[in-house]
Design brief:
single chain; Rossmann fold; Uridine Diphospho-n-acetylenolpyruvylglucosamine Reductase, domain 3; 2 domains; six-stranded mixed β-sheet; five-stranded antiparallel β-sheet; 52% helix
């Protein structure tokens, strides 16, 4: 049921998200100083009822010199004014060589902060617009159903528990809230360039798509993400049911699958079984791309002995009627710690 337009504000969507999260222990809020995170911090500190203790966490990437320091001071001052404890981590200069490395460094810093303050999870201020951009970015780079699902409402990054209570809030609703509540914010000067891939999608691709193809492109992308999410959940559930049947042997760091039985499954289901096996072995699918899964599917249909190297120190081998996935992280770690002279 769609809310009355009068109620379709940040408060409406954020309150629904908080009830769904049902958090009890302290909350760490990732606050950059930009409009989205300042709206989230203000809402939780001043408008929301019955929330657990809050902590504002700021990661200073030290990438923009005095501007980065000013962002940190701004967030520190706002948190103090709203009665929220403040935590900050300054990353070493040059620690982020790319968008992705900066993102991972940020989550590692947030994880350290959340452990320090005893937070149950980290709340980020990703919006519906961020979600639409993520779906389009992943589509252009090549992705499956899970990638098309976009960012989950809850998830883990680098072992850090993340929740995104503003994932159904649009940028227009963010700006409306900030104006109505008189909340100021910082503007990151790097957002004014189209060089980073996400900025290119935001500043050039989506505006062109809206003007030439579909004024409701954001909503169309969000519907696609929701459909992909439902399909991904269905295939994951089916794969879990089949996984117990197809695993013929388990050892520390090794899983053997029945190749003959795997061949009877539809191709998408086989792919999800492989994903479950890799997830169990390595704890993460982040480095696994669609090309790796396609290679595993080929390994499942051949009858000749073959081996395949996968990211995360995993070797897949076809042995008679089995596919053996071997996680050789311990061997790789020994080599790393004791390299040949």
């Amino acid at each position: 049921m769609r809310p009355n337009p009068r109620d379709a504000r940040l408060e409406y969507h954020a309150s629904l998200a908080l009830r769904r999260l049902n958090l009890e222990s302290p909350i760490l809020i990732a606050v950059s100083g930009g409009p989205d995170s300042m709206a989230l911090l203000h809402y939780l500190a001043r408008d929301a009822a019955g929330v657990p203790p809050l902590v504002a966490g700021h990661v200073n990437h030290a990438l923009r010199g005095a501007e980065s320091d000013a962002d940190a001071a701004f967030v520190r001052t706002a948190a103090s004014a709203w009665g929220v404890p403040y935590e900050e981590v300054m990353l070493p200069a040059g620690s982020a060589s790319s968008e992705e490395s900066a993102r991972l460094a940020r989550y590692e810093a947030l994880g350290a902060m959340s452990a320090r303050v005893g937070a149950e999870c980290v709340l980020t201020a990703h919006t519906a617009d961020d979600q639409a951009e993520t779906v389009l970015l992943r589509l252009f780079r090549g992705t499956g159903l899970r990638g098309l699902s976009g960012m989950p409402f809850r998830g883990k990054v680098r072992g850090v528990r993340i929740a995104r209570p503003l994932l159904h809030v649009t940028r227009e609703q963010i700006q409306e809230y900030l104006r109505r509540r008189g909340v100021s914010y910082r503007v990151d000067s790097t957002n004014e360039t189209s060089v980073p891939a996400r900025n290119f999608i935001r500043r050039e691709v989506l505006p062109l798509v809206r003007s030439r193809l579909n004024p409701s492109a954001r909503e169309a992308l969000l519907r696609t993400a929701a459909t992909a999410h439902d399909a991904d959940e269905l295939l994951t559930a089916l794969a879990r049911e089949r996984f117990a049947e197809v695993v013929v042997e388990r050892r520390p760091g090794q899983i053997a699958l029945d190749a003959t039985l795997l061949e009877r499954y539809p191709k998408p289901l086989r792919a999800y079984v492989f994903r479950l096996a890799l997830q169990e072995l390595t704890g993460s699918l982040r480095e696994i791309a669609g090309t790796h899964i396609e290679a595993l599917l080929t390994l499942a249909t051949t009858t000749r002995p073959r081996s395949l190297d996968l990211p995360g120190h995993v070797v897949a081998q076809r042995e008679r009627g089995r596919i053996v996935l071997d996680h050789r992280i311990r061997e790789a770690e020994v080599i790393r710690q004791h390299p040949r002279a």
